[in-house]
Amino acid sequence: MQDTLYLKLLENWANDNAPVFVVGPERSGTSLLFQQVSNHSAFCDFSEATVETFCFNKPWLLLEDSCPENYEMRLYVGQKNWDAFQNKIQPIVEANRLADARGLPTEYLYQEDRPKIWDARQYGPLLRTFFYFAWQNLGKKCLVEKTPAHIRSLPEIYNVFPNAKVLVCTREPSEIIASHRKRFEKEISLGVDRESPQIQWLNKPLEDYLAYFREIDDIVRHHIVQGRKILVVPYSELTEHALDTMQSIFEFIGVESNVNLDAQPSEAEARPEQLWDPLLNKPPQPNKIDISAYLNEEEVMRVKKLKEYLHDTWC
């Protein structure tokens, strides 16, 4: 009975909250967008937890003891709260043991039985519990979470939080590819082996990028047609027209816009500076990249052809 009452409490809490999820292609400006949103005084203080959780892509990691793979998730819950969180989800752990015995995969993305796996493994209640603990740990204000890859988990995000607000950061496709390649070369210059698995996400064939952009565009179109609460935020708008763009974003989210990028925040509103990426402490500013230094003419033409298919917010 206690577990049933607790799950109902979580469901009511999730229905009453509208957390913000920042998603989109990697290297499209999601970190910058996340920082600008979380700087608002209505949101939880994320100065210690601005990492990507991948909690919707890999929810089974929440069922495991402390390990490197769930470190980012533990930052949201709070290290001191992890044991209490683990204790609360024991019925879900048991449900997953039963799912293992039935031969159900842990991954649900791209699976034919995606909804069946999601329900059998109780990933919905698991993630509600995760975010409830995170909400308590981070100050009981509005939640915002940034994992670009969660673009593929929008149905599950809305399953957990029916009133969730999703911000999709987009960027001119050639710039995204160039940014990947620029970062790849930087990692090599810092001594990382070119063949290291840790940086291969920055070194994909052009065909992979083109397919990736089409997939994301299809997902966004589908959910907009479904009437979901989605706002597409082009990187160029965020960096070149930051004031107007942030005011539109806060209006979409439903919090009072108090944007003044040049003003110093009051002592009550001031947030600790980010140490993991000092550039995020600065107001958004234009950040052009030399595409010709990273894409040849044929690649540029192929991307240009792709843009005829993509939504016009890829700019």
Automatic annotation (TrEMBL):
Family annotation (Pfam families): Sulfotransfer_3 (PF13469)
Please list the coiled coil stretches.
Answer: none
Query: InterPro entries given for it?
Result: P-loop_NTPase, Stf3_sulfotransferase
Which PANTHER family does this one have?
OMEGA-HYDROXY-BETA-DIHYDROMENAQUINONE-9 SULFOTRANSFERASE STF3 (PTHR36451:SF1), PAPS-DEPENDENT SULFOTRANSFERASE STF3 (PTHR36451)
The protein's name is Sulfotransferase
